[in-house]
Design a protein that fits this description.
The structure is a homodimer of 446-residue chains. In chain A, a hairpin with a 2-residue loop joins strand 20 and strand 21. Among the domains of chain A are: 143 residues, FAD/NAD(P)-binding domain; 166 residues, FAD/NAD(P)-binding domain, CATH 3.50.50.100. Chain A is elongated. Chain A is built from twelve helices and 27 strands. The termini of chain A are far apart. With 446 residues, the first copy, chain A, is of the alpha/beta class. In chain A, helix 1 packs parallel to helix 10 and helix 6 packs antiparallel against helix 7. Chains A and B meet through helix 3, strand 4, strand 5, helix 6 and helix 12 of A and helix 3, strand 4, strand 5, helix 6 and helix 12 of B.
């Protein structure tokens, strides 16, 4: 970064890796601090991840839930944004490595999040894509829409049913929300669009290895979510461990489920960079940080957000990998750095990070949700309203709240799923109608 | 298509290839006719192409200007939609060939449009993408946004200026609109987002081989468009023929323009299928149809829209390749087929197709346009208002007019370019900041 002509400042250099909730909150929390902030991300956008499944299920467009990081920080003069991928950290010399050079830091904030974990079966990734990035969401959207196109012209009943079977692996909030939305598309949004198939016969199967859904919410709400999903027609398989995934099928022990559409929402692991740090990781590959969110013996290096494994001192449980926790961690780190650069490191003792649990929620289809907020439980339509408010209010700086509200209201009443476009190339070969889509780009004829 | 269980109808089979303006209008025009319509397209969406440059320049999202063809035709019971690419036609036996089989027809309507023409230099395609599909628009958006990311960290002034130089080849409506919008991004939308570069120094160069812009509009309007573009800071090079395009430069004879961002809006040619028909094509590879838009000796095969070369009997000029002409051709063909299937072919003589020229228009930046409507000329803000109305009203069936109007009004006042997301992979290697984007997908860190 010696290329940067203005890089002569004597202010402490804060390097933040990752523009998710934790990284962005940390940068914004340092707005008035006398520091030089560099925020690096491998994407140019901040993503409102809780709504990503709505891009995957063709309700919203990417621009509705994501906005350029540059734009969010455009008025913060002490911050610059770099589109780059971190490849390593030299903790001893305080250097972060990128493909084209090294960047020196005084504080390093690692907020690189998590990626899908296939529990050692990385070959499943092609067959069962996960949902973490905008490109993941567009890939899932392509596959879901192409599945109906392919089924429309499949003569063999068994093959047709496999094309119309959607398996979601993992019963956390993402899995529950995806399963509900996929069933809604099949049952309500598109039946009239097809002539040869009855899309209401499409099966959506949600597989969860543990005995219950939504592990982070109270048991009663998980049971309600289960009932709601079953009422919608989703088959929920609890206590079912996926043992193998192959082309066209999911195996649960000896049982074989024929399904051409498999989505992975089961596990996450810390992003690759964690392994290179030489510090202790938990089973999910997340960094075991000290109670001030730093790496042992490196008080200048923080790990925050989903990447951090930190124990909630109230419950003794790890702080969950959800947006509110990431935001709190980012704000906490910004406070510590600001204190130290203004008062001097010696003058301040860092308090331990304390997680304030505000609850959790999951939506199940168009007007049902379960929510647990400040100890109160909500279900049904009222929970869905709360869910909607909580998810629309933060969408500032993006395409605008009102536009999303508008799209949403329309989608609510018309079930229009207006973003139902197949763009880009799928990584998978899909035989549709009279041709094969994906793999190779179609030529210029129609 | 023997797979289709309901394929036993004795009604005349109308096979329409292409779901653009001409193909869709033809299908919709046959809504009450006793025919079986199959509409095949290699994409699942109908695209409102006149606004495609707004997707390329990050104002609108794809779903704002495109909608699933299935959805448009969902209530038309005599029409079915197939996602498939036509590979050939057996005119003698009335069979259309697709990768996985043949489809018999009684009437065939070819509405496959045009693709970019690089005038024999197909190697330029990688370096200078054109703008015909949603994926083209997203590719151009990626390149434009990545150019600024790369320039932000380029130390060498000459290399930085090349990264900040955008060349648009072709001075038709698409070229004029793209050049204006690119200049607006640089000068108004993003200057505050960058720290090291002054985006207002970005150069936009519009190259046109002929002595004037907008050949389809009256000369006075073309001159006004030229002045407007120049006032905005676009360099317009008339009488300039591009002789070569290589990595990082465009050549006009002996002159070399260093530019890393080149967009092709210069020429089109009929889609590949035209060559396989064995009939006469014009210089642009479009089908020279008879005055009833059919192929010689094949009164059952129509070519419509941009694919057709038909002479306007009033002016002696070819009917222009614009949306209103395509719509009129689609409607004309629907009328002919409906007449014949209800009254019998012998009973009806087809009248010649007559083009009704309603005019043309092009927008130049945020509140300037030139328009020529029913013989009247309009310029400036008023022309821009007309342009906006004409382009919003047809956006039915898509995400909804109101939502686009809303995004537009916001974008007008805030210049927010809220769809400024880099998604997918670019076909080009772009060196940005501290890494290389494109070519290979970034790994899972961050």
């Amino acid at each position: 970064m010696s290329q940067n002509p203005s890089d002569t400042s004597p202010k402490p250099r804060v390097l933040i890796i990752g523009g998710g909730f934790a990284g962005l909150q940390c940068a914004m929390g340092l707005a008035d601090a006398p520091v030089d902030i560099t925020l690096a991300d491998r994407h140019n956008y901040h993503l409102f991840q809780p709504l990503l499944y709505q891009v995957a299920t063709a309700v919203l467009s990417p621009a509705d839930i994501a906005g350029p990081i540059r734009r969010v920080l455009r008025n913060q003069q002490n911050a610059r944004v770099v589109l780059a991928r971190l490849t390593g950290v030299d903790l001893q010399n305080k250097l972060a490595r990128f493909p084209r050079g090294e960047v020196a830091y005084d504080y390093l904030v690692l907020a690189t999040g998590v990626t899908h974990s296939y529990f050692g079966h990385d070959d499943w990734a092609e067959l069962a894509p996960g949902l973490k990035t905008v490109d993941d969401a567009l890939e899932i959207r392509r596959r879901v829409l192409l599945a109906y196109e392919a089924a429309e012209w499949e003569a063999d009943p068994a093959a047709r049913q496999a094309k119309l079977t959607f398996v979601v692996v993992g019963g956390g909030p993402t899995g529950v929300e995806l399963a509900g939305a996929l069933k809604e598309i099949a049952a309500q949004a598109i039946p009239k669009d097809f002539r040869n198939i009855d899309t209401t016969t499409a099966q959506v199967i949600l597989i969860e290895a543990s005995p219950r859904l939504l592990a982070a919410l109270p048991e009663a709400l998980a049971e309600r979510a289960l009932r709601d999903l079953q009422q919608m027609g989703v088959q929920v398989r609890l206590n079912s461990m996926v043992t193998d995934i192959c082309e066209g099928a999911v195996l649960i022990g000896d049982e074989r489920l024929s399904a051409e559409n498999i989505i992975w929402a089961a596990g996450v692991r810390g992003s690759e960079i964690a392994k290179t740090l030489g510090c202790e990781l938990d089973q999910q590959g997340r960094v075991r940080v000290k109670e001030d969110l730093t790496l042992p013996e490196h008080p200048e290096v923080f790990a925050v957000g989903d990447l951090a494994h930190v124990v909630d001192q109230k419950t003794g449980q790890p702080v969950p990998g959800i947006a509110p926790a990431a935001i709190q961690m980012g704000q906490y780190v910004a406070r510590q750095i600001r204190n130290e650069v203004t008062s001097g490191p010696a003058a301040t003792e860092r308090p331990a990070f304390r997680y304030r649990d505000k609850g959790g929620m999951a939506t199940i289809g168009r007007n049902r949700a379960v929510a647990y907020i400040f100890g109160q439980r909500f279900t049904g339509f009222f929970a869905w309203l709360i869910w909607s408010l909580v998810h629309i209010i933060p969408l500032i700086d993006f395409r605008s709240k009102l536009s999303v509200i508008f799209t949403w209201i329309l989608s609510y009443f018309s079930l229009s799923k207006s973003a139902r476009l197949i763009t880009g190339r799928t990584k998978m070969k899909v035989k549709t109608a009279l041709g094969v889509i994906g793999d190779k780009e179609p030529k210029s004829e129609e």
